[in-house]
Structure formats: structure tokens, C-alpha cells
Predict the 3D structure of the following.
Amino acid sequence: MSQQIVPAGAGGALAVQKGGRSLVAEAQAHDYVSIIIAGQTFGIPVLQVQDVLGPQRITRIPLAPPEVAGSLNLRGRIVTAIDLRTRLRLPKRSDGAESMSVVVDQGGESYSLLVDNVGEVLSLSSATLERNPATLDAAWREVSVGIHRLDGSLLILLDVGRVLDFATKIDAT
Amino acid sequence: MDDLLSEFLTETAEGLGTLDTELVRLEQNPNDPALLGNIFRIVHTIKGTCGFLSLPRLESVAHASENVLGRIRDGQLAVTPIAISLILGSLDRIKMLLGALEATEAEPDGKDTDLIDQLNAFAEGRLNAVEPPAALAPVAAPPPPPVPVAPPPVAAAPVRAEPAAVVKVEAPPPPAVRPKEEPPTRVAVAAAPAEPAELKESAVAASNIRVNVDLLESLMTMVSELVLTRNQLMQILRSQKDSEFAASLQRLSHVTTELQEGVMKTRMQPIGNAWAKLPRLVRDLNIELGKKIDLQMKGAETELDRQVLELIKDPLTHMVRNSGDHGIEKPAERLVMGKPETGTIMLNAYHEGGHIIIEIGDDGRGLATDKIKAKALQNGLASEAELAQMTDQQIYQFIFKAGFSTAAAVTSVSGRGVGMDVVRTNIEKIGGTIELKSQIGRGSTFVIKIPLTLAIVSALIVECAGERFAIPQISVVELVRAAPGSETQIERLNGTPVLRLRNRLLPLVALDHLLQLDRPGAAASEAIIVVAQVGNYSFGIIVDRVFDTEEIVVKPVAPILRDITMFSGNTILGDGTVIMILDPNGIAAATGEVTVHDSYAGEQAAKSTARGAQRTSLLLFRAGEGGPKAVPLALVARLEEIERTEIEYTNGKPVTQYRGKLMPLVSIVGSTAIPTEGRQPILVFSDQNRSMGLLVDEIVDIVEDALNIELGSEKPGLVGSAIIAGKATDLIDAGYYLMQAFDDWFGTAQDAEFGTADKAKRVLLVDDSPFFRNLLTPLLSVAGYDVSAVESADRALDLQEAGEEFDVIISDIEMPGMNGFEFAETVRSAGKWRNTPMVALSSHATQQDLDRGREVGFTDYIAKFDRDALLNTLSATIGMQRGGEQRGAL
């Protein structure tokens, strides 16, 4: 998959293009909410995050895709919870602790992403951004926009749209 | 914008909307003075208001129209298509001017002398020598132009200079809340003859007020919150036996429910509002395209949320236009194909299980799969190889892709270039789905399903494998507790659970199995069965526990989950937990039964649900040599398994002791002798107090399938063969075996071929005994009759009211409620069936009965169990009838 990092404008804004995929413009989203899943840090653009919640009571949804952990009640609204561990093909949590939720908005609908922990809001600049290594696992490459080099760790930038795009294609039913 | 102006715009837009429909109606009922009076009054009012507000251009156009209408009203002019087209044309001009007025707050410059001259010329009778509108070139009297941008073809330059005027046919909601009073002066001024209608109108108008939509929206949200809080309080109350809060909370609960219902009503509008423009659209299409199309609208009073209505208005219009444009063929073409000259576009709306279903169908040419394939290839959407593998259904889905709209589409009414992809997107935005059925040469139907999101539905809360679910109360027929050792218990046929309920076998589905729920411990021995009904199909859902019924707010599921057919939505309970709402339709589909709505080609298809035995439950089994055999499940009372040692012989015939009586046992023809060891499966047939056990080798399955008996049989004991569950299966003649057990159950069994005429004759069978209905129906079917069976005379009369016709009616005499004699009397006294031959079936056949039968109008009277006599009589009776017709035809 070819990538081009094209500087676009004096403000240091970035546009990252992927061959054949939609354009992901990060011009204004320099701030990211950091989340930790299985020891790995990820980042979600802060403007897409609506809520950060502690452990929630989640109702299982039978027959739903395995990535869907269920649904929860957020102040009277029903929000679908997505287990990011499953989505990223990571094993279930073994330490018995409960997950935290990051509520994001995608296409007018709210979704709750289940993560191990939520970190701080980080301000990241394009200087530390790298593209995905060619050897990166396919499931991760699908949802990752790039990698930031932080002090002592790496942060994977998540594309929320692609994270949520796991439903089987229903072209001709 | 000036309040007065905005008020004027809204009012006049409404008036114009009404006029569209009324004018089309007037064209079909030219001599209706009330209609004409109403139309005149509205135009007159518009003219008056325009003058009052100093809008000279509008006033002149309205005045010219009013002139023509006045002449018509006075009888000096006739209501011809030209007249209607002219008036509609002037209305379009007014709409255009209103649009410009709204945009710029002033009338556009220019004159409408072209139109006004035409109107005046017509009023004075000078326009007589005009060609009929169908063949129209732009020079002669203009056909009604499509509403949005196009000016009438005979356009002077000034009019064309305003193409940018955006015609908003629907005026936006007024910006401020404003009580509307019908000014009494206007009513007095209108010199219309239809006085009573006028006064009634203004009285109605005076009792309505306009309210801002946003205000209603916030009211609705607050009420929803109130409902949820009320639910929480009630939940708490339930856990506390005696509480001083009880009485007050109950009262609060009632009031909240009423408040909720009231507020919801404000948002609900009949779907007829979205359909209002369609008659005119179809009329215009007829003229434009030279076709004959009849628009039928059913269920216009079905209500749905206002917002939803707004969103589907355009898609509906687009689809009707498509049907008229691409679907319905020209009259000549239709005649060649043997169809009636006039095509039909049918709209049908109804509520079902928390959704509103809208069907848009036509009896035109259907979707041309090859054209779609070609377009798909052209647009690069699929390769040749992929296309070759696809089913028709999959190919139809291509029309929903962007850019797929057929080229050179005529300017659409909405003028927004709506394609099917936009239609689908709009519908999915509100949580709905759209499906498509089509048959080449017969027509296409779109089915739109939209959840009633604001619906507050009564639902039964059940629990299964530790999880709770809601089932809409409306689908629940009853609850049955099944425990081992109790009266009702779940029996299994090769693993498939069934329940014997009041002499019927009810198919069951285990919810935990269906939803793949993990059960922590072993399965509970006790279970509750929720008997659900979807259409005509009843089945039972096995759950662990049932709680109570709650009023829940239905919310649509998230888009990712929309394909899970088991759920129709989800909701939040009083304690804050989210639970899924089961969709009985989806569950029924999963058990193999599919609810089919066949709504194109109008009434004939719709009536087919009344016909007996379209899909029957059949019990499949093996007995003796040969392939699988089947018997209608409804005939079978019980499935038993007895020890072979319990079979005794009396008089050389095998019997067994069953429920305190001796039950004769019969073997299927061709079976080998009964072995003496092991367990013997038996099908028990019962009627009243007699039972018979049919010995079989193995019970295979229960299926629901259409019973099309293809090969009649000469062999005793067999009705014929049919393809059931994909295999050639022999349908056994239960009657034959019953006769073997009890000689006096039937007359001699002799098979014969009857009914050799070309068209299947329709027979109505009226008998309160399900046993006999199920017995006679397959017999008559194989003899070539198309049978409808009902259980009472009342039901039969319902069918008569519904317009059903039959070639002969067979009726039992002894029935609860209206007996056979009374039924015959009623039928003979009035109604469609007055001359339909009627045959009486009865176990009483004294001379007195025969006489009475003839007296009340029965054509013939037969003893109930004489099958041959019955078939003979039917054939003779219909033969006489048909003979008359045929001779007439020759």
C-alpha cells in the first residue's frame, strides 16, 4: 500500500494519503486522547471523542459480530460498545479488571470503544510521525494512520472510521 | 420576512396543494357541484388575498383562472381535459411566482400575458379548435408542465428569464408560533354556492393552530425522559409491597401515559399527506407519456412521525415516477401481452410489529435483469463472471448504486435528481430498509420498512439463559407453562420440539438455540412457551421465565446490527439496562416460515391469503417401502410410541389400549407384518371420542410447504405425490386408513378423475370441524379444485363482503353460531353469491332435512361421508354453470 505524506500549508498540517482509500486529513487534530490496550498505546483525535467512561454495564447482543461487545445506556441513549481487543485481534483481558470506554461519534452515531485504560491528552506534532512499517500486522495496518515516536514508547494513530468498519460487506442481500 | 407575507405563503401553498388533488378529482367527476364549488372558492380566496397584499401579477393570474372556473360553474363551459390542464398550468405559474416571492420578498418582474390570454380565450370559447393534450406540441394549449422549473411551453421571454426561481412546493414551517384565525371577511366574500361546505371548512380551520416544529420536538424529548423516570419509579414501587407512594405513583403513571400518547399524536401524521401530490403526478405522466395508469392508494390513514414523513416524501414520489416511466408499458404493448390496457400503480401502507411498511408496486414490465447487468458492467461494478453467478435478487441490488439511474430521465417532480441510491440512503438514515421484488412481465414491488421510532410499545419481558429480551405484546397470543409430567409438555420429533396445544401441534423454537446463547448450567426442566402469531402462522418460543409487560420506547438498532433479523430494535428498561426487542417476523423466518406479501397485481394476489392450504404443515414419515410419506399435521392428534408388546389382536385386527379405550391400529399399505419387539411409533388420529393409530416405521420431520399435488394416485391410501422439502413425497389419504379402522367413517373409497375443465374451479368449504376441513381440502385439491376453507358461516360471509367469488359453496349444516340452513338463507337473500350453487353436507339426511335444504336454497344435499357423491355433485353442479357460460361464449 503506497503512502504519501504531503505537507499542506504553513501550519504544519498533514494530509496522509493511502492508495485507494479515502483521504484522512489531520490538519486540525493535533491533540489525541491516548488509550492503552494490551500494553500498546493508541491515539484517537480528541475532536472525535465525546466521553470517557469508567466500567459500564454492557448488555450482550446475541448474533452480533464478535467485535461488538454489546450495548450500554449512556444518559438515556443506547450506544453500541465495540471491544477493541477483539477488533485488533488481541486476546481477552486476563487480569480480570474491567474496561474503560471511550465514546466516539462516527457518522452521527455514537459508539463506545472498550479499552484497558485511558491516558492523557497528548499534543503531537508531525515531526514525530512515521508511516506504518511494512511488516505491521494486517489487522493493525487496517486501522492505523501512522506511528508517533514518543519518549520510551510508540503511539499508533487510530482511524475511527476504519475501526468501526468491520461489518461484513452486505452488497447483494 | 414580514409575518403577513409568510402567513400568506403558507396558506396559499396549502390551498394550492388541495387544488392539485381536487382538480384531478374534478376531471374524473366533472358533474360534482360541491367539488367545483370548493375549487372555485379556494381560487377566489387566493385572488382576494393577492389583491389585498398588492401582488398584481399573482392577482391577474388568479383572476384569469377564477374567470374560467366561474364559467364552468355557471355551466357555460364544460370540464374538459383542456380546461383542467389550463387551470393546472395557471396553478403552476402561481407556485413559481410564490417561490420567487419567498426568495426575494417581491414579485418578479414580467407579465403573464401568454397564460392569461389563453385562459381568457378559453373562457370565451375561442380555444375550441385545439388538439387534445396527448398529442401536444408546445404551440397549442400546454399540457400541465412538471412543477419545478420548466415554464409552460408557450412561454414568453420574461417568464423564461426566471429559471432560478426555486419552487418550494412545501412551504417551510413558519418561523414563529402564530395562532391562525380564518378571517371572517374572506369567507363572506366568496360567492361560492357551496355554502354548507364552506362554513364547515372555516369551523375546522378555526379549531387548529400552528405550532413550531422545534417546540414539539423538545416537548417530545421531555416526555420521553418523563416516561423513563416513571418506569424507574414503577420498578422501585414493584419491589415494595405497601408503600404510601403507591396510589400517587399509579396516578402519575396513568397521567404520564396519556400525556405521552397525546404528544405523540401531535407528531404523527397520516401518510396520505405524503401521497397528496401523487394523483396529479400520475395524471401528468399519463398525458406526458401517452399511457394509462391508475393509482391506487391503500392505508392513507396510516400514521407516522412527521419527520419521517418529510424524509420519505421525495423517495416515494421518485419511485412512483419510476414505475410510471419505466415500469408500466404503453397501452398497446399491454394489450399485446394480454394485460388490461390501464396499468396500476399500487401504494399500500400499514403498521406491523413496530414498523410501518410501505409497498409501492406496479403491474408493469418488471426489472430487466439484462439491462441492469449491462449497466453494471458498463459502470465497472462487477465482472462478467461475477454477474453470471448472481441471483436475480442480487442483480436487482445494483439499481441502488450511485450513478445507476437510467439516463435521459424526464424532469422529476422534486427536481432534485433523486436516484435510487439517494432513496436508499434516505430510508436507511431513519433506520429503515428497502427491498425489491420483481417479475419480468408482471411488475415490481418495493417494500419499505421504517421503524416507528417514537413508538411506545407494550412488550412482554422474558428471560432466557440469563439474558432478558422484549417481545411486542401485539404478537403474543398466550403463554403456556410446560413442565415434565404436566398436561402440556414439549415433545420432540427427531430433536425438533413441538407442543400439543388444543388438538394442534405447535412448532416450537428454543430462543437460546436461536440466539446462540450460552447456558451456564444444565438446561432447566421447566420452561415457558410464548405462543406468538405472525400473520397466519403460529409458533411457540421457548424461554426460561416471563416477567411482566412494560411500556417501552423502541429505538432502532445501530447500523452495524441492522441485518440481524431477530431484533426489531432495542430499549432501555426502567432499571436502566439495555435489552433487545425480538422481532417475531424474524424468528418466524428463521424457523423456515416466510411471510410473503404479494401485493402487486392488485386484488387477486391479496386475496390469496384467504385460500386454504397454500402452505400446510406436513408431518413426514417413513412406512413400508418407497420414499417418504406425508400427512397434513393438522389431522394428527398425537405422536405416540408404544411398546410392541402392547399390541393386541381382536378379530384378527391389531389394537392397543389407549387412554382407557381400545384403539384400532392400521398399517400403511405395503408395510411388512408388524414386528413383535421394540417400540412402535404411531400417528394418532382423533375425532370427538374416536381414535385410530397409524403404524409407521419412523417419524422424520415436520415441514411447512406448499401442497401442490402433482400426480393423483390410483392406489388406495394415497392422495397423490407432491414435492415436499425437495423430495418426491407421497401424501397419504388419512380418510382411507380411518375407514379401515372404523367402517362407518366413510363410504367406499373409489378414486376417479374429476374436474377436467381448464380453469381451476373455486370451491368454498364451510365446516366448523378442522378435521374435516383438513380432510376434504386435499381431496378436492387433487380433484382439480381450488379450495378455500373457513370455519364458520360468519367467516364465509366476511369473504363475500370482501368481494370473493366462488364457483360452488359447500357447507356443513350443524355448526355453532349460524348453522348451514341460516347461512344458505342469508346468501340467497342478497349479495354476490346469490346465484352461486350451494351444496349441503350433513350427517343428517332425512327427507325433512332434504326438503328444508331445498327450501333455503341449497342446490344439492349430500351425506357428509359420501366422498364420491360429493365429488360427483360438484362436478355436475359446476358443469351446469360452466356449460351455460361456454355455450354463451361459442
About this structure: Residues 1-29, 168-173 of chain A have pLDDT under 50 and may be disordered. DSSP finds three helices and 14 strands in chain A.
